[in-house]
Design brief:
Structural class: mainly alpha
Function: Could be involved in insertion of integral membrane proteins into the membrane.
Distance between the termini: 35 Å
Keywords: Cell membrane, Membrane
Largest sheet: 2 strands, parallel
Protein name: Putative membrane protein insertion efficiency factor
Strand content: under 5%
Organism: Paenirhodobacter ferrireducens
Helix content: 55-70%
Radius of gyration: 14 Å
Membrane topology: Peripheral membrane protein
Number of helices: 3
Length: about 90
């Protein structure tokens, strides 16, 4: 992970350490948003990783998404299926 991505990851790590045990385990997504954020920062660097993490967290509400949603590039088979679905709806 780049030095800038490590700095951006600090609030996520703090959340996981201090707040996550109190919030519970009612995550709408798999992997959880904090795990997704750390993986996005690792795979895509500070800027794109932070963008992907913010996009995920903002979609985490009762009218948002749910289910399996890996970081782009983490599951090539899932990415290919997503591209096919996106192409079919265009």
């Amino acid at each position: 992970m780049s030095p800038l991505a490590q700095i951006v990851a600090l609030p996520v790590r703090a959340y996981r350490l201090f707040f996550s045990p109190w919030v519970g385990h009612g995550c709408r997504y798999q992997p959880t948003c904090s795990a997704y954020a750390l993986e996005a920062l690792e795979r895509h660097g500070a800027l794109k990783g932070a963008y992907l993490a913010a996009k995920r967290v903002l979609s985490c509400h009762p009218w948002g998404g749910h289910g399996y949603d890996p970081v782009p590039g983490a599951d090539p088979e899932f990415d290919a299926q997503r591209r096919c679905k996106d192409h079919d709806h265009a």
